[in-house]
Amino acid sequence: MPVRYSKYEPGFDDLSGADLMDMIQDFLMDSGFSDPYNRYQPDPNRGPTAEDLMDALLQALLEQDRIPEEWLQEARNAQNFQETRLGQELQRLMQRLQDEGFIRLPGNDPTESGQGFQGEAQDTRLELTNKSVDFLGLKSLRTLLGSLGKNAPGAHVTRHYASGVESSGETKPYEFGDQPNINIGETLKKVIMKGLENIEEGDLTIELAEYTAAMNTVVLLDCSHSMILYGEDRFTPAKRVALGLAHLIRTQYPGDQVRFGVFHDSAEEVPLGRLPTVQVGPYHTNTAEGLKLARKMLKKMSGEMKQIIMITDGKPSALTLPSGQIYKNAWGLDPVILAETLKEATLARKEGIPIHTFMLAREPELLAFVKKLTQITKGKAYMTTPGNIGRYVLMDFLNRKVSRN
Length: 405
Hints:
Blueprint (H helix, E strand, L loop, with lengths): L16 H12 L21 H14 L5 H9 L7 H15 L3 E2 L5 H4 L13 E2 L1 H15 L11 E18 L10 H11 L10 E9 L1 E8 L12 H18 L4 E7 L3 E4 L16 H13 L5 E8 L5 E3 L5 E3 L6 H16 L4 E5 L4 H14 L3 E3 L5 H10 L7
Parallel strand pairs: 5-6, 5-8, 8-11, 11-12
Antiparallel strand pairs: 1-2, 3-4, 6-7, 9-10
Helix pairs in contact: 1-2, 1-4, 2-4, 6-8, 8-12, 9-10, 10-11
């Protein structure tokens, strides 16, 4: 029987939506570091467009040397890139990401138009779906926890005991309503001493277990301009930590809640779906406004155990005045700004909210500020770098202990 050979047709049919997400994850997590001055805009709603996505896919394919030379030559000579074979293939890849539920391109829904990706929607702002955020979170978590072993984390320990399954090694007399987790040895001692006919309810001895509770967390990310200056991208690692933490909580601590805020000249809450594409800006560091925002967010979250995790690389340099104006002073540690920031920390302590700070820099003013902040709230402070911050944040979250007084 003769063997038939079909002509090889170049293309990207072998690439799934997950493969494409893996190729463009750096683009999606861009902090503005690649072009900190030209792309910098103090617009909280800014984000990548469909045209940016097409450029990112093109760059990724070029880096992997997957584009046939004849396609590139055709694209160079064409008056309309969208009509070239390369342009059409890139549009198909974007449509594949949308069909598999990783992205949304408003106004370009194929279920509404009955067609595929529309070229005229190139300036449409790209929206990430829960599926894409979960993908990025899992990738971040695998990277950050790669050296911590395979054991799944447990729950958060509180200062209370309960009668339950996981023994703490201590016991107490049985009371009505306790789980019947009987300590056989201690109970038999009572039986021998008093006689079986004289045993009462209080003579039963039960095992005590750790009483666990849900933890509510607000992660505050400093997105002032210093996070991408000085030749180092500090903001992208911070976002990866936040996404990894969100994935960890969702999968391992279903009773917990985590929300996110960013602070710069002011502060605002960021939905999880928009967190990957947040970029730095504006310039200054309004830590007081960030802490005030975090306290408001935690008040809306039910539960007793609360905490703020703050990631920053600079001392407070801005303050929102009662009039709404922003007072700024980037030189030294301004006593007015410091006082109002520590006032917010004092209010957090009164509300039982510790503040755990991760410093991405070691300037004296930042160290002095964080030391005072930590003393006031009885939180923890870590000097770290963008390269290892994820391990410190996640290990501290997994190993949180509350001392028993």
